[in-house]
Structure formats: C-alpha cells, structure tokens
Amino acid sequence: MAEETNPDAEGMDADLADEWAAAMSEAGDDEGEGGDVDDEWAAAMSEQEVKPVQLEELGGASGMPALSSDMELIMDIPVTLSMELGSTEIAIRNLLQLTQGSVVELDRFAGEPLDVLVNGTLIAHGEVVVVNDRYGIRLTDVVSPSERIKRLK
Predict the structure, then answer these.
(1) Is 117 exposed, middle or buried (0-12, 13-18, 19+ CB in 10 A)?
(2) pLDDT tens readout for residues 71-89
(3) Cα(141)–Cα(116) distance, rounded to whole angstroms?
(4) Do residues 143 and 118 make contact, with C-beta atoms less than 8 angstroms apart?
C-alpha cells in the first residue's frame, strides 16, 4: 500500500516552504540589525510625554453626583431589579416529589431583610411593604460601592 503523491501538491508545498523560509530569514535579519528590542521600546517610551489626568469634581446641587455627557448615554439602559426572599439546595429526587401544597424551607428567618439585586449583584437589603394592594420594598441598607466590588471577588 504505497501512498500516491500528487506532483502539484508537492510543488505547492515546496513553494509554501520557500515562502516560510524567506519570511523566517527576514525576521531573523531584523533582530540582528536592530539591536536589542527592549532598548528600542525603552527609547520609544522615554520619548512619550506623561501628563497627569484631571478628574472632574463630583457632586451637584441635589446631592447626586453630577453626570458627564458620557454617563448620560447609559442612563436609559434597562437593568433587572429583583428581590430574593431566600434560597435552599434540594436534591432532584425531592424536587420531583413536590406537589401543590408542599412547603420548601428557605435559608432565612421570618422578618429577616430581603436581598435587593441588580442584574444578580447585591446592592441593598430591604423589607416588604404593601402599597395600594401591590408589593414593594423599603430599602433599609444600601451596600457601598467598595463593598460591592469586594463581593465580586
């Protein structure tokens, strides 16, 4: 079972190999001529002028931070706000046995504050209120931005 070779394929492989060899030799020549690449980068970086960034002062008359025009672009983007009463882990066997009237125990005590989540990220805690026959939530504690960042890690 001898392998058949295609003479055209061999010619294309040889041409491709020649192109690669030429490209590799050019790359090798550039490294030899230009000296040390790190020195070139160091020289280019030393030519750059470094200026301190001026940050805008935050704060406005209403107590809310003043919004730049860039921030205005994102102000109408919708996010999902949800409240989490509690959670639990349950085996699939027990999940399949649930019927109407079944009670599932959650990991929270009665009267404990709910978690307020924005796109799945905890931002506050609150308590349930009823206003005009509709549920609502009264925020009792808002998580600081630095604490939110810590929880992401």
Answers:
(1) middle
(2) 788 888 999 999 998 899 9
(3) 10
(4) no
Report in angstroms the alpha-carbon separations of 58 from 32, 42, 65, 108: 53, 37, 5, 39
Spatial distance between the Cα atoms of 31 and 25, rounded to a whole number of angstroms: 10
How far apart (Å, rounded) are the C-alpha atoms in residues 129 and 136?
5
Stated as kind and residue range, the H or E segment containing 75 is: none
Domains of the chain as residue ranges with CATH: 77-99+106-152 (2.30.330.10)
Instruction: Give CA–CA dist 139/123, Å, rounded.
Output: 10
CA atoms of 92 and 141, how far apart (whole Å) = 35
Identify the H or E element spanning 66.
none
Kindly report whether the global pTM for this prediction surpasses the value 0.85.
no
| Residue 113 · residue 125 · CB < 8 Å | yes
d(CA 153, CA 150): 6
Residues 6 or more apart in contact with residue 108 via CB below 8 angstroms: 85, 86
